[in-house]
Amino acid sequence: MIPPSTTGPINILDAATAIPKDMMAKLPTAINGPLAWSGADFEDEETYTWQLRGEDIEEIDAALQSFKSLGLDGDQVDRDNFPLPNLAARLSQSARVIHEQRGFFVLRGLEESRYSVEDSTTIYLGISSYIADKRGLQDRKGNVLFRHSAEKGGYTYLSSVSTAFNELLAEDPSAAKTLLTADWPVQISGRGAKCYLAPALAIHDGRLMASIDPNRFGPHPSSGPTNIPALTASQQSALERISKAAYRTELRLHLKTGDLLFFNNWALLHRRDSYTDGDETSRHMVRLWLRNSKLGWAVPDSMLPPWYAAYGDNGVRTKLYPLIPMPDYKVPKYSAGSAAFMIEDSDASDDE
Q: Which intervals hold domain TauD/TfdA-like (predicted)?
């Protein structure tokens, strides 16, 4: 869905030239609301975990068989052909949790060993279609779904952008102002590297929104000689300050085999420990980018190019859903709204 401020398709380079350098508004005293939380607020994972019951699993299994009987391609799975009559209402409420409340939840109870990779993927897509109706592209090849493997490491952490930003407002307002100023060079192409200028954070429609990817700020080492400007000293300092604030208030998730994690990429920062696949054992993570046309946050023009690359009319006709995990974890190139992860083996098996 194109944001209300956009009248038609936008070429990513045209959008870049139209973004003003300074979109600063008066700094707020604090960002309040349910999205301003700290990891210490969640003493019990049951507060954000939805445990599926036996009858829920039976309904999901019936939806899987119903979809398979239609002979449709996996890309076509949606809430109309993956019927969950009893779970639908709670999934819709969970979508509101992502967009209007704490910004994330974990769905638990699916036993991966009961399903083939194809069936597991169909279930993942079917359930996520009740959370959001659009799936974003994650690269120019048309990949909608990414699978990663891991032997050790790979823990997932979430932190509230609002909470981290509030710390900067109180202790270093100049860093907060730097993050809100639309002069951060964001690389949009690795070949013939180009960039556009955008803020790392924006306050839009009364919401604090983040598009922070250190791997896309400034010139990337793999690009070779380029005219993309490097980050200024104040930008580097601001990025370090908000990263440290996020680390101090983050929530470490103890994900288990079969867990589905849904979270709001605009409102929360996330990270994962680095990891590599082993010779005999592995852990798979499946990633989707999702957009709810009704509940999804309006995207400010200054953050539109990567969003439009994922959800706009980008010319990609064939969408890919790889079933074989990639051997190494690759950091996403940018954040593009809400995201969902599915764990196909347990974080609990990792060494501390």
A: 148-289
CA 344 centroid distance within chain: 18
**Per-residue burial over 331-349, b = 16 or more CB atoms within 10 Å of its CB, e = otherwise:** ebbbbbbbbbbbbbbebee
In 10 A of CB 212, how many CB atoms? 20
pLDDT tier at 343 (50, 70, 90 boundaries)?
Answer: very low
Residue 185 host element (H or E): strand 184-187
* Helix-then-strand count for the chain, H and E: 8, 14
Provide the pLDDT confidence category of residue 57 given band limits of 50, 70 and 90. Answer: very high
- Work out the burial of residue 193: count CB atoms within 10 Å of its CB; fewer than 13 is exposed, 13-18 middle, 19 or more buried: middle
Question: With contact defined as beta carbons under 8 Å apart, do 100 and 207 qualify?
Answer: no
As to burial, measured by CB atoms within 10 angstroms (0-12 exposed, 13-18 middle, 19+ buried), residue 294 is: exposed
DSSP string for residues in 186-242: EE--SSS--EEEE-SEEEETTEEEE---TTTBS--GGG-S--PPPPPHHHHHHHHHH
* % of the chain surpassing 70 pLDDT: 71
One DSSP character per residue, 235-258 reads: HHHHHHHHHHHHHHT-EEE---TT
Q: Which amino acid is at 37?
A: W
Q: Is the pTM of this model over 0.85?
A: no
**Measured between alpha carbons, how far is 161 from 297 in angstroms, rounded to an integer?**
15
In this structure, the chain runs to a length of 352
φ, ψ at 170 (rounded to 5°): -80, -35
Residue 160 buriedness (CB in 10 A; 0-12 / 13-18 / 19+): buried
Q: Is 77:19 a contact under the CB 8 Å cutoff?
A: no
334's tokens: 């940018």
User: 60-79 pLDDT, tens per residue?
Assistant: 999 999 999 999 988 899 99
Give residue 233's Cα distance to chain centre: 28
Half-sphere exposure of residue 105: CA atoms within 13 angstroms, side-chain side: 24
